[in-house]
Amino acid sequence: MSDYYNKLADSLRNRFAGKYDECFVSTGQLNFVVKKQNLIEVCTALRDEAEYAFDEMIDLCGVDYSEYAGGNWEGERFAVTYQLLSVKNNHRLRVRVFVDGEPPQVASVTGIWKGANWFEREAFDLFGIIFDGHTDLRRILTDYGFVGHPFRKDFPLCGNVEMRYDEDKKRVIYQPVSIETRVNTPRIIRDDHRYADRMPEEDSSNA
Amino acid sequence: MPEIRNYTLNFGPQHPAAHGVLRLVLEMDGEVIQRADPHIGLLHRGTEKLAEYKPFNQSIPYMDRLDYVSMMCNEHGYVLALEKLLGVEAPERAQYIRVMFDEITRILNHLMWLGTHALDVGAMTMFLYCFREREDLIDMYEAVSGARMHAAYYRPGGVYRDLPDRMPRFKKSKYIDDKKVALLNESRGGSLLDFIEDFTNRFPKLVDEYETLLTDNRIWKQRTVDIAIITPENALQLGFTGPMLRGSGIEWDLRKKQPYEVYDKMDFDIPVGTNGDSYDRYLVRVEEFRQSNRIIKQCVEWLRNNPGPVMLDDHKLTPPKREDMKGDMESLIHHFKLFTEGYTLPKGEVYAAVEHPKGEFGVYLVTDGANKPYRLKIRAPGFAHMAAMNEMTQGHMLSDVTTVMGTMDVVFGEIDR
Questions:
Q1: What is the dihedral of CA B135, B138, B143, B146, to 10 degrees?
Q2: Nearest chain B Cα distance for residue A19, angstroms
Q3: CA distance, residue B200 to nearest chain A CA (Å)
Q4: Residue range A36-70, pLDDT digits in tens
Q5: Residues of B in contact with A185 (CB under 8 A)
Q6: ipTM > 0.90?
Q7: Interface size between A and B, measured as CB pairs under 8 A
Q8: Positions in chain B short of pLDDT 50
């Protein structure tokens, strides 16, 4: 399978020269990091050209890289990841765009794959990424009137507000949380020698 | 002449046909739906965020609680993602056990779907029939993992323990007398595999029974035929997977097209529909009962003849035996390390997908070399299906909303995550 994806990677490199930043195979999966301004053009081609024929967008999600590897991330803070699937050719592709700025903005792919609608709403809700061209960008998973974007790394795990019923006011009220986030197991990064030969950088060089 | 206006109807959040907590805002023209706007997220627990704060193994029980009617398949997706990134593969016996329990789970899920779908449409009997068989399947879960629903049975590197030699039996109590006990224990005399085999022999006849009640039933057909038709092109555009896609006539099944575990050694067929309506999706899922039954049979046969380990021997990843811990220092350290800090994964990212009973259940995992995920994204099949609610209900009657909800096989645990 990896050979197949190496060939597909070469084809992508030729077809989209200058429009992508990275194109590599890792753990048998093809990654394609597209430049932000070329996203719509590249995605349309990926869907329509018979060699790729990515007729289905399986998943779309945001990633906040601000604390990646202990906060040593250099580059744009957010990424939007698209998992594409071709039912026709039976192959997959992971497309990524990196975005920065506040709020981060990226073009919407709802015109290419209708199914992206709710996935983009979710990424907006959880990460605050604005999708230009989305016709109905509302919050989807969080509460009505929620403040903040909960999946950003600077949003605390236990949230900012809690809810309770107030006996005097005879209604449910919001108040600042009374608990602190408790983490039982610290996050530890070990440079495990067993994985030394399997780092993605290595993969990209021989891909 | 009086003025005719569209009006807005609020459906839920607590509604017996909503299969959980769903608020639907329906814009109606008389009894015809103009627009449906589902408000989801009432069951949002932030599973993905919680997982970022826990060692990898501690998130396995969260997976059970996503789609809480097909527990082990969710675990499978997560465990597969971990294994892919670790570069390990479970022992063959564990792979067969996983495939067998995936299929048991598929039957479990489809029984739930059939029962509630039929109940929504008005066939009470189906619900009772389906729950009768679910009880047996849930007993299999209990026998193998100790829990009736939230099993936490699949682990990276295998499954937690081997199949038990003895199926738990009922005992006499003040509620059940000897005669009832004998009846209940009829098929529980042997091992778990005997019990499963007995089930697979009984089950095809039971599926026939369901079909007698529904397939040619006039009311059932009136309620499902030509309701919520989705064309193949539209199904792909909307990101449909699983029976929803197959109902529209696209032969797509990850078990066949991108086989994982030992599905490539299994002999089974993929049923597809022709019209893409609710009735076709019903027929597809009913046929999946039979196909799953076939796969379970093949697994039972293999598992009987091939004993072996069900977990890898790498104690950086899997716990050592308890006996070893008593005398061996290294085992004790391994055990302590594994259950406190856990293991680290190589830096990178991976997407693993399984053919979940509802569609493609995918797990996208980003790691930075730590003992916890950096980002975990769960791709729930129901999320994409629910997003098509507006498209599927437009132009239909209010009473068809429950049919559409039934045919989508929604469970809010996975949609809201």
A1: -130
A2: 22
A3: 32
A4: 898 999 999 999 988 888 999 999 999 999 888 87
A5: 54-55, 340-342, 371-372
A6: no
A7: 138
A8: none
List of chain A residues whose C-beta atoms are within 8 Å of the C-beta of residue B374: 67-68
For residue B197, give the nearest of B188, B184, B208, B210 by alpha carbon. Answer: B188
Alpha-carbon torsion (B292, B298, B304, B307), positive or negative: negative
Structure tokens at B218: 């006039």
Which residue in the set B344, B348, B368 is minimally distant from A192, CB to CB?
B344
Chain B nearest CA to A117, separation (Å) = 8
Return the DSSP state at A193.
G
For B306-330, how does the pLDDT look when each residue is reduced to its tens digit (9 = 90+)?
A: 898 999 888 888 999 888 888 889 9
Closest to A135 measured CA to CA, from A149, A148, A120: A120
For residue B197, the tally of other CB atoms under 10 A from its CB is 18
Can you tell me the distance from the alpha carbon of B46 to that of B154, in angstroms, rounded to the nearest whole number?
Answer: 22
Asked whether the beta carbons of residue B239 and residue A56 sit closer than 8 angstroms, the reply is: yes
Asked if B239's CB is within 8 angstroms of A57's CB, the reply is yes
Q: CA dihedral defined by A70, A72, A75, A76, rounded to 10 degrees?
A: 30
**B349, B390, B412: which to substitute to probe chain A, counting the most A Cβ within 10 Å?**
B349
Question: How close B369 comes to chain A (CA, Å)?
Answer: 5
Q: CA B95, CA B89: separation in Å to the nearest integer?
A: 9
Residue with tokens 């109606």: B28
* pLDDT tens digits along A116-149: 999 999 999 999 999 998 988 899 999 888 888 9
